[in-house]
Structure formats: structure tokens, C-alpha cells
Input
Amino acid sequence: MMRNPPPPPHLVIVGGGLAGLATAATLVDRGLRITLLESRPRLGGRASSFTDPVTGELVDNCQHVSMVCCTNLDDFCRRVGIAGLFRREPTITFLGPDGRTSTLRAGFGPAPFHLGGSFLRAKYLGWGDKMRVAYGLARLALDRDAGGGDRRDESFADWLWRHGQNVRTIHLFWATVLVSALNERLDQMDVGLARQVFVDGFLMNREGFQMEVPSAPLGELYGARLETWLRDRGVDVRLTTGVRSIDADEDGSTVRGVTLRNGETIDADMVVAAVPFDRVGGLLDPAIRGRVPAIEGLGRLESSPITGVHLWFDRPVCPLDHAVAPGRFLQWVFNHTALQGRSPKGGGQYLQVVISASYDLAWMSKEMIRDAVLADLAEMWPAAEDANLVRWWVVTEHGATFAPRPGVAALRPPQRTPVDGLFLAGDWTDTGWPATMEGAVRSGYLAAQGILEDLDRPARLLRPDLTPDRLAGRLLTPQADSGGLRFAPDFEEVSPEPAGG
Ligand SMILES: Cc1cc2nc3c(=O)[nH]c(=O)nc-3n(C[C@H](O)[C@H](O)[C@H](O)COP(=O)(O)OP(=O)(O)OC[C@H]3O[C@@H](n4cnc5c(N)ncnc54)[C@H](O)[C@@H]3O)c2cc1C
Output
């Protein structure tokens, strides 16, 4: 008599942010039944949009950008067919406190010296400042153990003082780059992560620093399009479906499934908890928690806020596509009329302003934040003074990212847990990356790799870092002595898909 084949293993993913989406996207078509449960009415998590109740248009919770060095996010976007919906910016434009513009672009010379020409021409730093910064950069880049050893608790601000930096260079150079990259103040920032931003982002590869800016709202990219893509491939995507608990057998050694907030239970062979770090402990039943000691460490992780300000003007104000504003209240301006072709009804301009690590704004009302931003814009571009503000939003995400405080690496758990069938994913898990979309996707890929290993179908899903340019690789990587590169190319190839999927 013919026997029915065993049913495919059932994977439940809790959380439809980029970590959960990346897990699902890499595991479709691999013989699993996949259910994705998201408590909100949309996918995308922290990288998403809300609908403006007046105009009905999608407004991002905040501008999200990535860099070319974000190889796994790029892989994810190609995999799900949205890679064509980003615009690469080969040049970063700075508008100094005195109103003069400087640009950062790769010039002659190999990495790590490719940005040297732009740096030397930067108008918002004097020659003395540049020499000082160059010295600090060299020390940071060549100290591969920065932030390690017995200085694990040192903040990056203290590291900078120890390496000859002064208030001007810290304020105008180091803070300008790092506060937005890591969403943290320098006096609370981990040295190792600060080094990683400069080395992997700016020094290793000629293109690594270039920005990828979405040309569509986040709600379309990681919301509507992902939902369709996953559903078309058989994933059961359930929105507005909050999970109350992740359940295990009596001794907590093997995962059994989940219980929803409405009391429904769903059996599963494997569960990925892809929720924010401050939610995961509350989801695990006590028997599981006792077996995953790393969960206790999450209680010591802290959050860092980001404020996004959306401004619709009745006329053009900003002549650039984007601008970094060293030494100002606002940090970045993105011109969404230029980047996404979006403007108020009847013409004008739509700007998104970003203020990272916005702890100091906690006492300010939304109107005060708006007015401080408008005052900066009027100093940067006089047209802003005459323009009428048609509409505005100030959105502060208090738990935008985990705070990259000194020694934070020790608090980040791996994706595999000691409980059979239970995996963790999220930008806060141990990926070596700060809280970014790249970190979230990496965590999802690592969780998916663990699942495939358990099913005896191992595959390398995690993409390697950007290949260091030859000289940068020799100078800056741990294998510098042997001149070797860091990764063997033993990952699965993903063929590019056309945009729009
Ligand atoms: C304002 C802001 C600006 C940012 N800017 C950038 C940037 O420019 N570049 C960059 O790379 N990164 C940026 N980030 C960080 C980036 O958004 C995050 O690192 C990334 O999106 C995290 O993805 P995640 O999947 O780990 O978590 P999340 O996106 O938080 O996803 C977790 C999901 O789990 C769901 N959930 C929670 N509890 C439950 C439950 N009980 N049941 C079911 N579902 C549940 C949540 O609703 C959420 O959708 C920014 C973040 C913010 C907030």
C-alpha cells in the first residue's frame, strides 16, 4: 500500500519586520510550510509608512537609507524583486555651518585613500582640523582591537579625546558621520561599532560609502510588495495577528507552536521570534525562558530615539537632492520631490529631515521641534524663510534602535537557541552589525541557515561583506599579514530579478 508522504515541516515566523521577512524570503520554495504572523495591519516593522489621514498618501515613519556595503540587504531586495526601486547616490553633499557646500565622492587613488581628495577639499573643516581628523582616522583604522581588551567600557568620545581630537573635530566631523550611522551620542557609543562604520563603510572599498535611497515609500517596498511576493509563493501571511506566547513541551526543551492573542493555538515544528528585543522575553513561556539565559541580558539593552520631520512647502526650498548639515540642530535633509517625485498638491516641495539619537529633544513639543528645524532650513536656504508650510509631521520613534553602548556585543544573543526548533531574529541579535536594515536581514538569513541545518539541508545564505580593495584589504583586515581576503565565496548565488517583482 502507498504511504502518504509526511507533511512538510511547519515554520511559524513571529514578526513581519525585515528580519522576519528575510527569513521567510530565503526559505520559500524549500519544502516548508511557512506562516508569518504580524501584529500590525502591515508588514515592514520599523521600516514602514503610515497613511496620512488628510491626504491619504503614504508617509514613511522616517527616512531610511542604506549603503553599498550593506550586501545582505541588497541581496534581499534583489531576491524579492525590489532592487530597482532604490537610487544610488555616488556623492554625499555637506552644507557647512557657513553655508558652503562640500561633496564626498571617490576620487583618484585606491581604497582606503579614495576619499582623501574630497576630505582635503571639505570647506567646513580647517587645515588644522583635517590633520587632526586624519591622525584620528589612521589610529582608528589601524587599531584592529579598538574597543576591545581592557578598554571595553570606554566610550567613543573618550577614545577620541585620547587620540588628540578636540571639540571642533568631534562636533563637525566625528559626530556628523557617526551619530546618524549608529543612532547614538558619541559619549555613549561603542568604539568597535564606530570603527566598523569607518572601516567597512568608508575605507575598505571605493563604493562602500555610497548611499542607496528608496525611490518609493517604505510601506510600498517592504509592505505591499513583500506581502504579494510572499503570498504568491505560498507563505500564509496573517496581518493584525498578535502572538501572545511561544510555547514548548513541558520541560521547555522543544518548541511546540504559538498561542495568539485571541486564544487560537498554532502548532509548529520551528518558530522564529523576529520581534523587537524588548518584546521577546514576554513571549517565551517560562519553561523556555529558563533554558535561554541570553534573554536575561536583553533586559540590559537600551533604546535610542530618532526624530523624523516631514515638511511640505508651497514652493521649492532646497536646491539639492539631499544634504548633511554638520554642526546644526537638524542632521540630514532629504528632498522627496527630487528623490521620489512627490510634492504637495498644486506644486511645491516635500522635505524629510532626520535627527538621530534625539535624546535632547525629549523636552520639546512637536511645534518647537518643527520651528527649530525651520530656523535651520532658513539659514541653509533663504527660500525657506519666504515659503509657506502647507503641512507637517514630527514623528519620534523612542525605541528606534537598540543603543550601541560600550560592550553591547556581549548582550546580543545568537539566532540559534538551546531550545529545539526555536530561533531568534532581529537587528538586536548577534550579527556584528549595528541596528540597521542590513543587521535585521543578516539576522533573518542566519536564522534561516540554522533552520536548514536542522533539516539536514545546509546552505550558506549569508552574503559576504563587500570585497575589500587590494590595498585596503592588506592594511585593514585581520589577515593583513597574509594578504588574504576575509571570505571565501561559498554562498548561494541569487540571480538579479527585474524591478517591480
Ligand atoms: C525612525 C527610524 C529610522 C531608521 N533609519 C534607518 C536607516 O536609515 N537605515 C537603516 O539601515 N536602518 C534604519 N533604522 C533601523 C531599521 O528600521 C531597523 O533596524 C530594522 O527595520 C529592524 O527590523 P527588525 O525586523 O529587526 O525589527 P522590527 O522592524 O521592529 O520588526 C518586528 C516586528 O514584530 C512585530 N511584532 C512585535 N510583537 C509581536 C507579536 N507579539 N506578534 C506578532 N508580531 C509582533 C512588530 O509589529 C514588527 O513588525 C531606522 C529605524 C527607525 C525606527
Remarks:
- The chain has a mean pLDDT of 93.
- Residues 14-20, 37-40, 45-47, 61-62, 64-66, 242-243, 274-276, 279, 283, 306, 308, 397, 400-401, 426-427, 435-440 surround flavin-adenine dinucleotide (CB under 6 Å).
